[in-house]
Amino acid sequence: MAKAAFQRNQRVWVESVGAWALVEKIEAVWAKGFDEPVRVTYDVGLGRPFHAYELRPEDPIGPPEKVEGPQWRLMRARNKWQTPEDCAHHPYPGTYPVVVTDPTDWGGWRVPGAEYDRDPQKIEFQARLIAQAPSLRAIVRDLLRLFGDNPEDAPPGVQEVARKAMAIERYLSETPEPADGGGGKGAVAA
Q1: pLDDT digits 0-9 by tens, 95-119
Q2: Which of 42, 83, 122, 133 is a good FRET partner for 173, with 20 to 30 A between their CA atoms?
Q3: By C-alpha distance, which of 127, 141, 150, 132 is closest to 173?
Q4: Tens of pLDDT, residues 24-70
Q5: Do 163 and 143 touch, CB atoms closer than 8 A?
Q6: Residue 39 CA neighbour count, 13 Å, CB half
Q7: Segments making up each domain of the chain, as ranges
Q8: Beta pairing class for 25-29 and 39-43
């Protein structure tokens, strides 16, 4: 018995070709007397059907775990300046990524269309990285908490990573000084 491992329009890596492709059609071979197909292949527009073992999903790890604290999410906005046909080389033609950092879908990060068009893979990576920043910070805080319990028992490599993590956490926690040196307009009294 065979089950479909991929869905239609799912982006997959084709090992034998060394390229990304979209599953255009799922082709199942049925046999009389069986409740499930005996063979499933996938048409990805490369001239022949592929078996599941020849394909790899785009994100084998799956969605990240939810962590406490702010939740940022990656959304897709419609590209108003290009039709999906004009930008078929984009990972998601006709859209671009937007990272929303507010629970009411306000605020966040977006990129100019021309920059996205220049290197869509780079921008997609940046969007995923930014959306996961609160989760990564939670991991850093967990590491620092573990390190803080017994710093002398940690191996030298972990001590070095913890020092770097402390520097990043300190940088994120500090409030920047005003550009005029702190005594002028806009300075906050301590």
Answers
A1: 888 888 887 777 788 887 778 888 8
A2: 122
A3: 141
A4: 998 888 888 877 778 889 999 888 999 888 888 876 555 555 556 66
A5: no
A6: 5
A7: 11-57, 73-131, 134-173
A8: antiparallel
